[in-house]
Every structure is written in C-alpha cells, then in structure tokens.
Amino acid sequence: MIFELRFIVSVVVAAIVSFGVMMMFARLISTIFGDIFQEKFCINSAFIKYVKCATFLVGISQGATLFGFDWSFYETIKELVPNLDFNRVSWLTATYATIIETLRALAYMYSALFIIILIAYVIVTTREQSDVSD
Looking at CB atoms within 10 Å, which of 11, 81, 93, 120 has the fewest? Predict the structure, then answer.
C-alpha cells in the first residue's frame, strides 16, 4: 500500500515539476522556432506541441521511479537519531529525489533540444545565404 501511494505521489510531483518547467520554457521555444523557421515550413506549432509533450513524458518517466528506495539509509538515520519521525524523513527524501531526477532529465532533454536547434539554425542560415548569393 505504501509503495503504491509513494509511486502515485511521485508521479504527481514529477508532473507538477514538468508542467512548471514546460511553462518556463514555452515562450522561449516558441520564439526560437519562430525565428528559425519563420512559418515558411509550417512546422512551428507541431514542434512546439512535440516539445511540450516530450517535456511531460521525459519528466514523469524519469522522475517517478518504479524501483524501491534505499531503506538501509533510513535505518542508519533512525539509529543515529531515534526521536526523528522516520515516516516524514522517508517522504521528504523520496519527494526530493523525485524533484531532482525530474529536473535532471529535463535538463538533459532541453540541452539536447537546444543543440539540435543550433544545428538547425546553422543549416537554415547557410541555406538562406546561399540562396541570396545565387
């Protein structure tokens, strides 16, 4: 029961963090895609929808983990500080791990995305310069 509840809470926390990151980057990605592709390829809205969907998928899949937590760590804490509420420490640590893993996965995803955008920008500007010179 606790494992299922912890997993559901982990999914909800990962979804909230993913939504926050998506809202933070939505305008930036829309501006970048608009500047690079300038609506002549008619793919701006599709890319933006894809990036928003990918943000949720990557954030939730990497943030909400199915495997168990390291219980030996909690047992060590419980031995060192016997008056500490074991349940609270376990929930706080699990929530913190979910937030960190979600942010880490989204940072990797956005890093890869911006590298791809940079390559696309170089290709588009090179093509436009060769069209102007012809």
Answer: 81
- Contacts from 29-33 at CB under 8 Å and sequence distance 24+? 29/113, 32/117, 33/117
Instruction: Give the global pTM.
Output: 0.75
Contact 105, 20 (CB under 8 A): no
The pLDDT assigned to 4 comes to: 74
Query: What is the C-alpha separation between 71 and 4, in angstroms, rounded?
Result: 16
| Residues whose CB is less than 8 angstroms from the CB of residue 32 and which lie 6 or more positions away in sequence, other chains included | 117
Place of tokens 């349940």: 87
**Cα 117–chain centre separation:** 17
Q: What is the Cα–Cα distance from 58 to 50, expressed in whole angstroms? A: 12
Q: What is the pLDDT of residues 98-112, one digit of tens each?
A: 899 999 999 999 999
